[in-house]
Amino acid sequence: MKKKNPIKTVYYKDELNDEFSSAVITPKKIDGDYRYERDNFPGKLAHFFWYRIVAIPLAVCYLKLVFRHRIVNRKCLKKFRRQACFLYGNHTQPTADALIPTFLTHPRNAYVIVHPNNVSMPFLGRITPYLGALPLPDDLAAARNFQTVLNKRVGEGAPVYIYPEAHIWPYYTGIRPFSEQSFHYPVKYGTPVFCFTNTYQHRRFSSRPRLVTYVDGPFYPNEALPLRERKKELRDRVYACMCRRSRMSDVVRIEYRKENDHDECDVCRKQQGV
How far apart are CA 34 and CA 148, in angstroms? Predict the structure, then answer.
């Protein structure tokens, strides 16, 4: 049973499309002129500085000091440390979610497929590409460049992260529905898939819950199925695993309710265990 003492209640209309991040960002167009590859010497130097010198220590300090962050079952990634993989997580924090990938598969360079908003922020938008952000393309020329750099990263054996829910719902303790579209990547490359589920658990001496991340996998595409069914079946297994893990949350800090409905929707009740 979850401990319910929410600091506020948020009403939503659409689980798939509602966004509750407080940031107001005008996304720039990711066209054929966008530079996905920054592997020249200045790019490598900038990456080393922002990723190794700034982001990793910041991730450790922020996650530990603010959330007392803990990772459970990270060992399942150990034997895949030289192999490319795709990792799917639930999107419940604007800052922590940006930092968890640098921590989860450390010391490898992590790459995150992101919305163009993440490279459009004043100042920070100039840095995030050096932290591994790969924004989704807006036209065919950019799509070709995106595919080229993704081929390269997979060929290098890099971990690639995806937040398939796409929109941030702070402190949400369930798993929102997401499509199988992003599972095109592991199906195409035949790479293993892992999921990481962020949960919120009671802290004895703080009103802010502890952030505990559960890692599960590997999951592999079922090669016996047709392509479309292969993506859906892989998505369904990952989604079911994340839903099971989400029940480890025992604190509801923000309560989400369907607009014009005084009771939580059936999906939320089932996932949140209330």
Answer: 13
SS3 content of the chain, % helix, strand, coil (to 5): 40, 20, 40
* pLDDT tens, position by position, 117-140: 999 988 888 999 999 999 999 999
Domain that holds residue 79: 3-272
- Domains identified in the chain, total number: 1
Cα 159 to Cα 42, 45, 112, 115, 221: the distances in Å are 23, 20, 9, 18, 17
Nearest CA among 243, 220, 218 for reference residue 233: 220
Peptide bond before residue 192 is cis, with ω within 30 degrees of 0: no
Return the structure tokens found at 227. 């392509």
273 pLDDT more than 90? no
208 neighbors 254 (Cβ within 8 angstroms): no
Torsion of CA 129, 180, 87, 221, to 10 degrees: -130
pTM over 0.85: yes
Kindly report the CATH number assigned to the domain that includes residue 93.
Answer: 3.40.1130
Query: How much of the chain exceeds pLDDT 70, in percent?
Result: 93
Strands 3-12 and 133-135: unpaired
Q: What is the pLDDT of residues 3-20, one digit of tens each?
A: 667 888 999 999 999 999
Beta bridge partners of 30: none
Question: What is the 3 state secondary structure string of 18-46?
Answer: CCCCCCCCCCCCCCCCCCCCCCCHHHHHH
pLDDT confidence bin for 264, thresholds 50/70/90 = very low
CA torsion through residues 148, 151, 156, 158, sign? positive
Instruction: Report how far residue 138's alpha carbon sits from residue 149's, in angstroms, rounded to the nearest whole number.
Output: 15
- Residue 263 confidence (pLDDT) above 90: no
User: Distance between CA atoms of 10 and 86, rounded to whole angstroms?
Assistant: 31
